[in-house]
């Protein structure tokens, strides 16, 4: 009974090439390609990534700018680096978890599960495929920022560094919603969490106003909030000022989030599947 | 005796609902096992356990000699699954779906394309290969779904109600494809709600209900068990009903039953009697609107096997049909 590894079919099997190295990476990239093709055919799903930065930048600059800085132009310089961080974090939180829940409910994922591929590949492919939103959102933000009069005060290399750092940070934090999505598997609950989660994280910082103006308990939170480091790093890289420490802290926190949350999400995904 | 897959005493519960109450399924290499049962009988759960998508609460199952729980990763290298619901991506074209799956199975880009083209041709989807799946008809989706399960040339193929919802003509096309799989040496597990389908395709049939096996036999044995076939005749002219009844009763030697819609039915012992009835009606000059040799419906199968009337919602399907 145990030797039922039937012979004739083994011959048929050899028609396929043998296993190649890095299966998880290759399979995830193939599946990310699938996500991109889908996005390309339904470009409407990218609308939120394009509209969100516009709304936030306009709101902060014209609604609060006069009150906080006395001039919206001055405030634009102050708030832009923070809005960059807000944009990359929200981009990761809002869409990534949701598209995974939608994917998991479809029959396609059932088929993937019955195939000899890395268990986490569909999850990773979905997250990687969604990463196309970051450059779009950031490009939109910079385009509008420049139209309104924002100017990088450092140099192109530093500005690119700010972009790379904030995107990386947003991507690392997006695994939080991925984890929530895998655990809850319910679109409306995932949207709610993805919508509420960024508030304490992003707004409890010096993004919109200097921390000194806040009550003590909020200052204490802003002090320990990892996103504060990202905002400091973004300011330093775009406007000048101390860079080394906030960048190092941002990388550290981003790294921790990635190393803890991504394997946890992958584990939860494999277990629930 | 070598079994391509073998399940013993599978139990699966969902909360208080018992989907499987200890079922055994097995098929020898290169044969087709039909699993016949109504909705909710546990067919899909059984397939999901064999395809490593679910773990049983009790019992064990092996596929190709490998345990479906312990050696799940190895089992997945040998199986192909076609689900009850189309498991293809609507936003991709048929060809893109197949190429992606080929790539995931380690085929080179060129090999994946070649395999996709081959399967699209084999399943009569050549011209639809470039269309997005969202534009496919139900039958086309089913066929693409079957192709998707065959990309890796699996030695064991699980088909979960592959023809449910298809027109009779399309169903027979798919039957031909399924038969050719078995002819090529694959082992097939096919679930269905139609005795006719199991009869046409399977070497052996396992009938399940409420998560239990209630019969296992060859198609011929099962038909013997559940009773023979029935002739259905509906004359083109309702006024000829009495004449038809006389002809049929003379040939079969059995009384006819009058059905709704001006049709007559009578059980027959041998297919030969059907041919005799056709001939007798022809020489009597009677035009018929419907003339069929019908297998028992799933309802009748269950009644014969369990003695309990069970409304499965499935009507009988016709085996042979001709108009004169």
TrEMBL record, chain A:
Location(s), subcellular: Cell membrane; Membrane
Region of interest (Disordered), ranges: 1-20
UniProt-recorded name of the protein: Transport permease protein
Record has Chaperone as a keyword: no
Annotated TM spans: 44-64, 76-102, 123-147, 159-183, 190-209, 247-269
Ranges for domain ABC transmembrane type-2: 44-272
Residues forming coiled coils: none
Keywords linked to the UniProt accession: Antibiotic resistance, Cell membrane, Membrane, Transmembrane, Transmembrane helix, Transport
The family this protein is said to belong to: Belongs to the ABC-2 integral membrane protein family.
Record organism: Promicromonospora umidemergens
InterPro entries, alphabetized: ABC2_TM, ABC2_TM_bact-type, ABC_2_transport, Nod_factor_ABC_transporter
From TrEMBL, chain B:
GO terms, molecular function: ATP binding
Top-level division of the source organism's lineage: Bacteria
Record domain ABC transporter: where: 5-235
Keyword annotations of the record: Antibiotic resistance, ATP-binding, Cell membrane, Membrane, Nucleotide-binding, Translocase, Transport
Subcellular location: Cell membrane
Membrane topology, from the record: Peripheral membrane protein
InterPro entries (UniProt xref): AAA+_ATPase (IPR003593), ABC_transporter-like_ATP-bd (IPR003439), ABC_transporter-like_CS (IPR017871), ABC_transporter_ATP-binding (IPR050763), DrrA (IPR005894), P-loop_NTPase (IPR027417)
NCBIfam families reported in the protein's UniProt record: drrA
Family: Belongs to the ABC transporter superfamily. Drug exporter-1 (DrugE1) (TC 3.A.1.105) family.
Name of the protein in question: Daunorubicin resistance protein DrrA family ABC transporter ATP-binding protein
Organism of derivation: Promicromonospora umidemergens
